[in-house]
Design brief:
It is a single chain. The protein is α/β, with parallel strands linked by helices. The protein has two domains: about 190 residues, Rossmann fold, CATH 3.40.50.450; about 130 residues, Rossmann fold (3-Layer(aba) Sandwich), CATH 3.40.50. Helices cover about 40% and strands about 15% of the residues. Strand 10 and strand 11 form a beta hairpin. Helix 5 crosses helix 6. The longest helix has 22 residues. The protein is elongated and about 70 Å long. Bound molecules: 6-O-phosphono-beta-D-fructofuranose. The site of 6-O-phosphono-beta-D-fructofuranose has 12 residues, from loops. 6-O-phosphono-beta-D-fructofuranose binds next to loops.
Length: about 375
């Protein structure tokens, strides 16, 4: 252990919230190791995200807890989708119950926390921001396989999920080719299509459908028929789970929900398969990759990013620079005000170079 440095933060609590992703443990290790070794901070592990903070499920972490976890998947702290500032209608408005927020504040003070470190996606960092407005010191770290957090160019978890998605497409190619089938693969990404776009480009998808670009099934049908006329009797269609048709894009959210309930398919991948069969007469099979994308060990670049963001968070804690989220901006570790990611989603911009790249190499984006 080197010389212990001055620190504004003596004690901090740490939690992981929202869907898990590869790299969470690497980030926990980064914050805790640097916080402990460099600054001799006391570290409190909060169990199951904001749920544990509401319930007071909090325990002291010692070096043994954050040793040997760099490469492991999931989160040693557990996670939940608890969002204390959301009302029953699951929206951020003034109707949320203050009980949960008061319980969080009570436990924060009772455990003598100088700051709360929250590792999570949009919801987690939004909650972090709202807690900072309530007078708590909060530092956020951006994790998600969706890569959709405003204020960072990259989130940890994304590249691991991308590798899994790409490998799945690679594995579908030979079977698509052997059977002359259209293979649809559905990847995660409700509001942003980064994962489908990256994996689709990396895996050579023939069609890529994103939430940002409502699809026209006729355009997709024409593309697949043209491929067949040119001797390619198989195709790979990569669909983000939040993709929607041009007809649906014109509907109100509730109307769209009702419309979807009428079709007896479990998810968009199956629906697109069904629509393609109807449009082209080709055989189309759907694969939904699901939680496999979030599981397993983090890839090397996620380990490096998560560790770097974690270590930088410890420095912010030491400097007493609260109310910030760490991120990677122009290849540098930087921090932004927590209000920057709060309540936002970083969607794929319609002028993004990767969309041009995809179309330049003959990929149909459903338009
Ligand atoms: O937030 C990440 C994410 O992986 C999304 O892409 C997906 O829609 C969601 O989590 C599903 O998570 P869960 O079923 O755990 O709520």
């Amino acid at each position: 252990m080197g010389t212990i440095r001055e620190t504004a933060t003596k004690t901090f609590g740490i939690l992981t919230s929202g869907g898990d992703c590869p790299g969470l443990n690497a980030a926990i290790r980064g914050v805790c190791r640097a916080g402990y070794d460099k600054y001799n901070m006391t570290i409190l592990g909060i169990v199951n995200g904001y749920r544990g903070l509401i319930d007071g499920d909090i325990r002291l972490l010692t070096p043994q807890d954050f040793s040997g976890i760099l490469t492991s998947g999931g989160t040693i702290l557990g996670a939940s989708r608890e969002k204390p500032f959301k009302s029953q209608g699951s929206v951020y408005d003034d109707h949320f119950s203050r009980d949960k927020v008061e319980a969080i504040k009570e436990h924060y003070h009772k455990f003598n926390m100088d700051c709360l470190v929250v590792l999570g996606g949009n919801g987690t960092n939004t909650t972090g921001y709202l807690l900072s407005q309530e007078g708590l010191n909060v530092i956020g770290l951006p994790k998600t396989i969706d890569n959709d957090i405003v204020g960072t160019d990259l989130t940890f978890g994304f590249h691991s999920a991308l590798a899994i998605g790409t490998e799945a497409i690679d594995r579908l190619h030979p079977t698509a080719h052997s059977h002359n089938r259209v293979m649809i693969i559905e990847l995660m990404g409700h509001k942003a299509g980064w994962l489908a776009l990256y994996a689709g480009l990396a895996g050579g998808g023939d069609v890529i459908l994103l939430p940002e670009i409502p699809y026209d099934i006729k355009a997709i049908g024409r593309h697949l028929v043209r491929r067949a006329q040119n001797g390619k009797h198989f195709s790979i269609v990569v669909v983000a789970e939040g993709a929607l048709s041009i007809e649906e894009a014109e509907m109100e959210k509730k109307e769209r929900k009702r419309y979807r309930e009428q079709t007896a398919v479990p998810s968009i991948g199956y629906r697109v398969a069904h629509e393609i069969e109807g449009e082209t007469g080709m055989v189309a099979k759907a694969t939904v990759l699901g939680y496999v994308q979030r599981g397993g060990i983090p890839c090397a670049s996620d380990r490096v990013l998560a560790t770097s963001l974690g270590a930088a968070a410890a420095d912010l804690l030491a400097q007493g620079e609260y109310g910030r989220m760490l991120g990677l901006v122009h290849n540098e570790i930087q921090s932004v005000d927590l209000s920057v990611p709060a309540g936002k989603v970083k969607a794929v911009p319609l002028d993004h170079y990767m969309l041009n790249t995809a179309e330049a190499v003959g990929t149909c984006l459903g338009r």
